[in-house]
Design goal:
alpha/beta; TIM Barrel; ten-stranded mixed β-sheet; two-stranded antiparallel sheet; 7 helices; 28% helix; disordered C terminus
């Protein structure tokens, strides 16, 4: 094997595995919902999302195809894995060749595969959306240009990303549209304003996309705060009243070992 598991952390809901590569780097995967394994595609991440601990130590390198699938291979005999979420550490579009091979590999194993991406870089995003995935989430986290400037260090223009999806869908069956959704992580005083939410709803409605509205998990060392539960529910109802299909973060995703952006390289804390 190209990697070995060096630590496992458990919470009441999820199990997090830390792997060490042959060149002594560390990456992580999370087994959640009792059926899905969320895997990493890079050591660190260069996108630089303002809320994300996963790339806080910088970017080191892409994972190889073997390293991506080994995260599954080391656990497949001990866990009832039914699906793969390519949503761990790293931006999959920046490792497109190895991710493409990994998606084909997992699909041949009979696993459902979902992908989360910021869409950077767009030339690789266009390849990513064409893969035989079971669902792709485009992480937007802000609609206004000035909001996205604050959130992402590296990014593409949102309208160009949407155009790329639409171009793909124009050549696909109508049912394929259901496999695409917009991811939006609500953060207090950053992207929770009415203007961004209204534009998010208008964008989703125009293109008939589902919105995955996520709660931010507080991360030590980050000067960011989650919105209150009341404001989270109000944002959900606001979008619903616009006629948007909205999904909320379930308890597995709001868990300490399963929240968006909370994976870190070589996590030290132990969850009892």
């Amino acid at each position: 094997m190209t990697m070995r598991i060096v630590k496992e952390l458990r919470s009441p809901l999820n199990r997090l595995f830390i792997y060490e590569t042959e060149d002594n780097h560390r990456v992580e995967s999370v087994f959640y919902k009792g059926e899905r394994l969320c895997i990493s595609t890079q050591v660190g991440c260069p996108i630089g999302c303002i809320f994300c601990a996963s790339g806080s130590k910088g970017f080191f390198r892409n994972l190889t195809f073997d390293e991506i699938v080994t995260q599954y291979e080391l656990l497949k005999d001990s866990l009832p894995i039914k699906g793969i979420a390519i949503a761990g550490i790293g931006e999959p579009a920046l490792n497109i060749d190895n991710v493409e091979k990994a998606v084909d590999y997992f699909r041949k194993k009979g696993l459902k595969v979902t992908i989360s991406t910021t869409g950077y870089p767009i030339e690789n995003f266009k390849k990513l959306i064409k893969l035989s995935h079971n669902g792709l989430t485009l992480s937007v986290h802000g609609i206004l240009h000035e909001t996205r400037e604050k959130i992402f260090k590296k990014k593409e223009k949102l309208e160009e990303l949407i155009d790329a999806i639409e171009e793909h869908l124009s050549k696909s069956s109508s049912s394929r549209r259901k496999k695409f959704q917009l991811g939006y992580l609500l953060i207090k005083n950053l992207n929770d304003d009415l203007e961004n939410l209204k534009l998010l709803g208008e964008l989703a409605k125009k293109h008939r996309f589902t919105v995955m509205l996520m709660m931010y998990n507080r991360v030590d060392g980050f000067d960011l705060e989650p919105v209150s539960r009341e404001k989270y529910e109000k944002a959900f109802l606001f979008l619903r009243e616009m006629g948007i299909r909205v999904t909320l973060s379930n308890r597995f995703r709001t868990d300490k070992l399963g929240g968006c952006g909370t994976l870190t390289i070589g996590r030290k804390e132990v969850v009892e």
